[in-house]
Amino acid sequence: MNFPEIATERLLLTRICTGDSPHIYRLFADSRVVEYYDLEAFNALAQAEELIEFFSSRFESETGIRWAIRIADSNELIGTCGYNSWSAKMRNAVIGYDLNPAFWGNGYASEAVGRIIEAAFSGALACGQINRIQADTVPGNNASENLLVNLGFKEEGLRRESGYWKGRYHDLKCFGLLRAEFQKNITKS
């Protein structure tokens, strides 16, 4: 099975490989990146290598996919995005993304996430055509919530204390986007 690479105006979305370990380590060692994540900031390169292996196994088992977000001109890895899980039977997926803080505020996350949403709704991925994409945020993660809303996601509710990490419970806001809503938004553009 071939890994689907995607090009945007400024970015390349490619498979994350072991050679990317130092970049993945720097990304996930930054406390600002993992502030709302269910993991602690990395403190060893081996953690990045394990995460890359996890992303690869998810793709190989056809249970999800994670792309490296790279600047097209330089091939520099600046973040990741993808589907943490998907169900071909239920035709839904759960999306996730992260970006190096040095690149925040430039529209890169919207550009990358918008394209992987397009890929899922068009049926271009191994899971087939998805009808619903879900995203969860921790209240206070305003940048992520704004990204989702700008891409057409609707806030669907708050799941109280539905996550537990870093020694405490976390509420999660649920956002959803349906294929019909996405197509309607594209038609308006």
**Low-pLDDT residue intervals, each spanning 5 or more residues:** none
CATH superfamily: Gcn5-related N-acetyltransferase (GNAT)
The number of helical segments is: 5
Shape: globular
Number of strands: 8
Instruction: Give me the secondary-structure category.
Output: alpha+beta
Q: H/E order of the elements?
A: EEHHEEEHEHEEH
Report strand order across the widest sheet: 1-2-3-4-5-6-8-7
Give Rg in angstroms. Answer: 16 Å
What is the strand content?
25-35%
Helical residues, percent: 25-40%
- The name CATH uses for the topology is Aminopeptidase
Main β-sheet description: 8 strands, mixed
Q: Which CATH-level-2 architecture?
A: 3-Layer(aba) Sandwich
Number of domains: 1
Q: Can you give me a brief rundown of this structure?
A:
By secondary structure, the chain is α+β, with helices and mostly antiparallel strands. It has helices at 21-29, 45-60, 108-122, 142-150, 179-188, and strands at 6-7, 11-15, 65-71, 77-87, 92-99, 132-137, 154-165, 168-178.
How does this structure look, described?
The protein is α+β, with helices and mostly antiparallel strands. It has one domain (6-188): Gcn5-related N-acetyltransferase (GNAT) (Aminopeptidase), CATH 3.40.630.30. Helices cover 31% and strands 33% of the residues. It has five helices and eight strands. Strands 1-2-3-4-5-6-8-7 form an eight-stranded mixed β-sheet, sandwiched between helices. A hairpin with a 2-residue loop joins strand 7 (154-165) and strand 8. The radius of gyration is 16 Å and the shape is globular.
